[in-house]
Each structure stands twice: as C-alpha cells, then as structure tokens.
Amino acid sequence: MNFDYSVLFTHEAMSMLAKGLWFTLQLTVLALIGGMVIGTPLAMMRLSSNRWLSAFAKLYVDFFRGLPLVQVLLVFYLMMPLVLQWVTGAQYPKPLGALLAGVITYAIFEAAYYSEIMRAGIQSVSRGQQNASYALGMSYGQTMAQVVLPQALRNMLPVLLTQTIILFQDITLVYAVGWKDFLGAGSTLAGINNRPTEFYVFVALVYFLICFALSTYVKRLQKRIAIIR
Amino acid sequence: MANLDWTVFCSPSTEYVDKTSWVESVCHSIGGSYNAAAEEVTWLQMMFTGLKWHFIVFFGALVIALILGSLLGVMRTTPNKWLKIIGNAYVEVFRNIPLVIQYFLWLFVVPSFLPTTFSADSNAEVSGLWYRHVAASFPWVMGVLGLGMYHAARVSEQVRAGIQTISTGQWNAGFALGMNRAQIYMNSILPQAFRIVWPTLTSEMMNMFKNASVAFVVSVANFYALTKNMIEETSQVVVILAITTLIYLFFTYAIKFLMVRIEKRIQVPGMITGGK
C-alpha cells in the first residue's frame, strides 16, 4: 500500500490537530488540578477518626474505581444538562461546553485515584511528625498544610505523575461521547481524507513520544527521590 | 461406520426449547407486559448478549495478557541481552499509547502493512484482505487482541517486579540442586512471584474488566455499545444508566472478591505474603 504522509502537513489538518492537542492538554491540566482539589480533602476524610467522613470517602473511591471511565463519561455527559436544568429551573436542558463538562467529569473521576495516592503519601509521613506539631500547639489544619502535606507531596510525586500520564492517555476515551480531543481530530481527518493509516500512526506517535518522555522522567525522579529518603 | 455425518448437528431438532419464558416472568414481576407468542426480542435479552460479548472480550484478553505478560516478564529478567531489549521495547510501546488508539492501530494500520491481494468485492488490490475480513466479521477477535496485548505489557511489569523481589538465594539454591534456569523459573521463582504480585494482579484484572467496555470502538456489540443504543432508542436515560452502572459495580467487585478468595487459598505459610 502507498502511504502519503503529505496529507498530514496541510494547513487544515495541522490546525485541526493542534486544536485537538490543545483541548487534550487543557483538559489534562485542569482535571489534574480539579482532581487534586477534590482528592486531597477526600484523603484527609478517609484518614479522619470520624466514622461517617471516612465511610463517605471510602464509598466515593470504591464507587468510581469500580466503574469503567467510558461509563462515567456517558453518565456525566447525559446527566449534567438534566441536573443543571433541574437546579436552575430552566425550561430546556442546556448542554455545557465540552471543555467544562470534561473538566468536571475527569476531576470528579480522577479525584478517587488521586485521593488514594494522597492517602498513601500522608501515611508515609511518620506519625511522630504529626505528634510533634501538635505538641508545638499547631492546629489540625496547620499540621496538615505546613508539616504533613509538603512531605507527603514529595514522597508521592512519582506516583502522582504516573497517574497524570494515565489521565493524559485516558482523555482519548472522550471518543465515546464525541468531544474533539487530539484523537478525535485525528479520526475526523482520517475520515475526511480517507487516510486512516497516516493519521492514526501520527496520533499514536505523538502520544507515544509525550508519554515516553514523561515516564522516563518519572523513572529518573523516582531514583533521585529514593536516594533522599 | 462408513458414512459419518458430521453435519448432523445442523439438522433441525424436534425438541422444544422455551427461550423466552424467563423474559416473560421477569417482565411480569416488574409490572411490564411481554408477549411470548410473538417471540419479540426485548432490551433485556439484548443487554444479556451485550454482557456475554463483554465477558468474551474480557476472558480472551485475560488469557493473552496472562500468558504473554508472564512470558515477557520472564524474558526481561533473564541475563540474555536481546530478550531483555525485546521485552522492554514491547512494554514501552504498549504502555505509552492509549488503548483506544491501539484499537485503531489494530483495525486500520496493521492491515495496511500486510501483503496485498486482489479483492473481487472492490475490484482492486487490497492490503491484508483476510485480516480485514476477520475484523469485519468477528469484531470480538479485534477486541480480544487489542485488550490482551495492551494489558500484557502491564502484567509483564508486575511479573518482572515480582521476580525481582525474590532473593538470589532462591536462584543459588536451585542451581546447587542441579536445576537449570528454566526449571528454577517453573518450580521455584514463578510460583513465588505470582503469589507476591497477586494483589496488584487483582486490580489489573479489575482494570481489564473495565477496559473491556472500550471494545465498542472496534464495533463489538458489547454491554457498553448496547447501553448507548438503548438510550438512543428509548430515551430512558436515568433508568438505563442506573441499572448499567450497578451491573458494572457488581461484576468489578465480584472479580475482586474471587481474587481475594483465591489469594487466601494459595497462600503459603511463612512466605512474605503468606500470613500465619
């Protein structure tokens, strides 16, 4: 079969792919921030001595870890407009933009995974640190923000980054609800130009290079941090 | 004995099988109606076939992932440089490309690198004709292949990690007994390694079950694909999503439960993970 990779380098194809990649990157970063913002309190709830808080956090984590991401995407994609309509009392369901809906979905889903990583990270900081800060008269909030979390974050950085690579790869699953990410742009172009091989090879190659570079960096980071400990 | 008719299984049977009575009883018990005489196909039956395809993809991928993953994991721990390079390359490629893209590669890209043959249908030279035929008529083959190869890389990472945690004393003991490398792997190292990595293997199996729903992109009519179809045709969004979500949760945790049961059954007293 003849391959014609020049179809990739037309203005139309390149701008569409760039737009898709920009969507993927934005979604990854925003979902990472959102996931951490929801995941950190979840981890603290999970570790709290309050039975109800801990049970809620466990239920949250187990719920999202028991579901395929494509199912979660479908549920959020279909339910968010309905919930929004119900809350605002609007006459018709109003769809959210793909980026906003994506960020909400991925942040809530990834929070379950990030919170488990955070929990392990917090537990890796020795109990003595907490006791010492309580002895100095620090409150729970101060202890967490100034003593435990900074140490925990450093310990769990490699795992956190690995999970973020997984998040970056999982963005491709928005294919299930038809949002235009990098893969979505590639697959549309493959259809328009009737050149599936060239476009899918290109998309796969870009994904591979980004993820390979990141995971190699994580491996080196892991070695460096291991020496510090 | 002269004429054995192997096609006897294809001759029509006079036995009567009531295929729809269970549908009728389920539908009546939840207050619906079902006309068994018309033999119409309900969404209930469709969703069961969807579940069946989901499990076919899952089990098929499980077999590939475990066999290939163990093989690669062993290859990466042997002293042979070439085996190591091949194993590492496989893992890097299959771990750093997202599953959906891998499915598209299997579906569109692989056949275009196969030799071309003349196709009577399209009246032109087509590459990988037999492959395209298989992909079109048996989408589950693509589903199994894609998911299995994807997870084999992950399983091999775990198997390798398990093998590397085992102390060199075990190797030395094996060599001292006059065993060769293959024998030590089979009889000493792998049985211990699998027990050590069983908990991570458990979550890998749960992931594999969840990822089996992604096989809809190679047009396997699995549970997820039919969920989408059912929502499109009946618009009962809330009901369908609630039930399907519960079904996923049930099976994911059923797998976890089973794996923990097996873990307890196979544990060896005195080993790292063996307990009392």
Radius of gyration of chain A: 21 Å
Helix content of chain B: 55-70%
- The H/E string of chain A reads HHHHHHHH
Kindly report the average pLDDT value of chain B.
90
Q: Mean of residue pLDDT of chain A?
A: 90
Strand content of chain B: under 5%
Whole-Å distance between the termini of chain B?
61 Å
Total of DSSP H or I helical runs spanning 4+ residues of chain B: 10
Q: How is the CATH topology of chain B named?
A: MetI-like fold
As residue ranges, the low-confidence spans of chain B are none
Structural class of chain B: mainly alpha
- Radius of gyration computed on alpha carbons of chain B: 24 Å
Number of domains of chain A: 1
CATH architecture of chain B: Orthogonal Bundle
Question: Topology as H/E string of chain B?
Answer: HHHHEEHHHHHH
The parts of chain A where pLDDT drops under 50 for at least 5 residues are none
Explain what this protein looks like in three dimensions.
Chain A has one domain (5-228): MetI-like fold (Orthogonal Bundle), CATH 1.10.3720.10. In chain A, 80% of the residues lie in helices and 0% in strands. Chain A is built from 8 helices and no strands. In chain A, helix 1 (11-47) crosses helix 4 (98-124) and helix 6 runs antiparallel to helix 8 (196-228). Chain B is mostly helical and 276 residues long. Chain B has a single domain (41-266), classed as Orthogonal Bundle (MetI-like fold), CATH 1.10.3720.10. Helices cover 68% and strands 3% of the residues of chain B. Chain B has helices at residues 21-29, 43-75, 81-95, 99-112, 129-137, 139-165, 168-176, 181-211, 223-234, 237-266, and strands at residues 116-119, 124-127. Chain B has a two-stranded antiparallel ribbon. In chain B, helix 7 crosses helix 8 (181-211) and helix 8 (181-211) packs antiparallel against helix 10. Chains A and B meet through helix 2, helix 3, helix 7 and helix 8 of A and helix 3, helix 4, helix 8, helix 9 and helix 10 of B.
